Amino acid sequence: MDPRYSVFASRFVGPSGTRLLMDDLGEALAAGEDLCNLGGGNPARIPALQALFRARLRATLDDGTFDRVSGVYDGPQGNREFLRAVRDLLRREYGWPVEVDHIAVTAGSQSSFFILFNLFTGHCVDGRRRYLDLPLTPEYIGYADIAIEADALRARRPLIEHLDARQFKYRVDFPAFDLAADSGAVCVSRPTNPTGNVLDADEMSRLVEITASADVPLIVDNAYGVPFPGIVFDAVEPVWAEHVVYCLSLSKLGLPGLRTGIVVARPDIIEAIRSFNAILTLATGSLGAVLATDLVASGEVLRVVTEVVRPYYRQRVADAVSWCARHFDGIDYHVHKPEGAIFLWLWFPDLPITAQELYARLKARGVLVIPGHFFFPGLAGDWPHRHQCIRVSYAQDPVQVEHGIRVIGEEVRRAWQG
Amino acid sequence: MDPRYSVFASRFVGPSGTRLLMDDLGEALAAGEDLCNLGGGNPARIPALQALFRARLRATLDDGTFDRVSGVYDGPQGNREFLRAVRDLLRREYGWPVEVDHIAVTAGSQSSFFILFNLFTGHCVDGRRRYLDLPLTPEYIGYADIAIEADALRARRPLIEHLDARQFKYRVDFPAFDLAADSGAVCVSRPTNPTGNVLDADEMSRLVEITASADVPLIVDNAYGVPFPGIVFDAVEPVWAEHVVYCLSLSKLGLPGLRTGIVVARPDIIEAIRSFNAILTLATGSLGAVLATDLVASGEVLRVVTEVVRPYYRQRVADAVSWCARHFDGIDYHVHKPEGAIFLWLWFPDLPITAQELYARLKARGVLVIPGHFFFPGLAGDWPHRHQCIRVSYAQDPVQVEHGIRVIGEEVRRAWQG
């Protein structure tokens, strides 16, 4: 790296988990069918959903809406009709006392986290330095690199609860989770990317309570949760409180290419997001919001989630788990209970090579996954567990997913053989 | 502002020229016909261009491209086919020796500047602090707020050349423009937003030479320039050298709502942009690039610029200038020679109120403009000139533009009458 680059940029430039992930996605995109891409977070292409968005887009072409929204800059809080539609849905479905001032559109969830993490952490106006606390790891790879001050994240190891059928579940280690006075915010993804964990109602209410007592925001990354895209397999209630910052996205509903994130939070936080949006990009892209407005306003999105999205992923995860059982025969493996999101989190205890090495060997065979150690942002100390896990998307073409799982089995066996 | 917010965020949160601009745009959008919006940078809605983009979008719906691009994350450098199309156009038209590695897509020009300004300025890895030098002001409002370190910009006053017919032209004051050793980069917009100035070939070659000698990048903000959108009224050659960073955008070609910026630069700079893209937003939206790919690849975009875009704005600016002559009768005013971009830069010498006050009075009458003082980012010292100018878009509906100019005339006259 050029030593004349800024210290700020040097945090971002160069290798990172997020760069690896997105480079691999780009490479897979260029390679087409030649690469079995179980690495990235691309949602499944569900024909019924695609048809729905195509129909919406055709309608915007026919009625002049497309001309209007493509040809102007939106305001820095995002498309007004969409904000109203989201407000109405949250009031109607969950009774949340939110107004339009509680909601902003961003250029996708990653952009939401960039804004929020850097709003609440680092050297602060009052002279203190604050940190982002993650109650649980593994956590989302994208959190690792976005805080502009180094070492801004602090994470905890989870408790591991063993379940039947080679499954396990991470649990927040509450006795070890206390918030210091220098906590700036707490963040969890629910469902968790990469594990498919869903923090249960008790865990969530304890987190809400702890953060309320400490007077810090609780950021809930809901990229896979309810009300949409609803990729969560048991009934789940979203939490709300004045200090909760709820992050949603249209990506896993099928529109990652249109980069649309949504933040629901206190008006003063939304106000800060407006400023960030204006200064980072002037305005956010409007098309994703426009395509989703009627779906959200009418509540049809809930029907689509219940009748199309959730059953689709439910079937896909059941297949993927059964393919593990078939192709991992004789291997000591565990899989995190897949309660939501679009990944299997595979744990190979005492794996004789690192997850990074397994990733490299799999990539050499044309199968992309993400090595586990990228999913422990802010976790201090060495913990062998993080080198024994990989994240595998089950959202892609089933033939590819089964092929990938078979190759993973072969390579893990080969690692043991030596 | 909450004193627990970060110092980083405090640079962005709160009032700024960019926030004012984008809030006004959002307000005008919500108000519809009730507000005469000559403030923002929305391009004109040119029917032939809109028809072209609608046709392209319909084609992507019909052939499955829309499903493909909306449903996946692009790589962090942007859509490959689009990068190739831009490379081919620049090689073919200008003979620039660029490869795909010289080009990246961003979430719009503002995002390009956020990345570039913060890559080249601030506290640097080698321990020095570097600054961004603007050879000329007035310059683009959006530059003012995006450097994450305070006071990162340094600007110069221009020379003023008086021309016929109440016109004038700003010139770089080269004797006063020397680059200190702590310069990190130099930036100019060409055509200049807000003035419509086009730095001439001599000025550009001197800037290329000075920056080459100092071994710093020369960032050329080409949001309105050639090859597209080509809103520049006399023949102009774009400059290229290995240290030039050329920033383009699809916004003024008619697609601001799709947020698509393009950077052409040395591969090491493009590599840094890839990382920023991945970490700031994972990927950039792909739809703008996809809609423009064939136009750029075939070179049809050049025909569209020559036959549609440029004649359209040429007529509009001629009208706007004539309306000034009509409605500013008896007022001491000057207008910057409109050589490109979509604004009139009006100067009222010795105006007895500030441009900010004039802005407020105009807004009270339903006419939005931008007060001039926001367009002197980094200019030290007090210079009354900056409070005597306003930026007026002539890209909107002609009836509105004439109405706005009439109201400006009335309010300036009223200011003099006290």
List key phrases describing it.
homodimer, 418 residues, alpha/beta, Aspartate Aminotransferase, domain 1, Aspartate Aminotransferase, domain 2, 2 domains, 8-stranded mixed beta sheet, 6-stranded mixed beta sheet, 12 helices
Q: Can you put this structure into words, describing what you see?
A:
The structure is a homodimer of 418-residue chains. The first copy, chain A, has 418 residues and is of the alpha/beta class. Chain A has 2 domains: 7-49 and 303-417, Aspartate Aminotransferase, domain 1, CATH 3.90.1150.10; 73-299, Aspartate Aminotransferase, domain 2, CATH 3.40.640.10. Chain A is 40% helix and 15% strand. The first copy, chain A, has 12 helices and 16 strands. Chain A has helices spanning 7-10, 17-31, 47-62, 65-70, 80-94, 109-120, 201-214, 267-281, 287-298, 300-327, 355-364, 398-417, and strands at 36-37, 103-106, 122-123, 129-134, 153-155, 159-162, 167-171, 183-189, 218-221, 244-249, 261-264, 334-336, 343-347, 367-368, 370-371, 389-393. In chain A, the strands form 3 sheets. In chain A, strands 2, 3, 4, 5, 8, 9, 10 and 11 form an 8-stranded mixed beta sheet that branches. Chain A has a 6-stranded mixed beta sheet with strand order 6-7-12-13-16-15. The longest helix of chain A is centred in the C-terminal third of the chain and has 28 residues, at 300-327. The radius of gyration of chain A is 21 Å and the shape is globular. In chain A, 57% of the residues are buried. At the A-B interface, helix 1, helix 2, helix 3, helix 4 and helix 6 of A face helix 1, helix 2, helix 3, helix 4 and helix 6 of B.
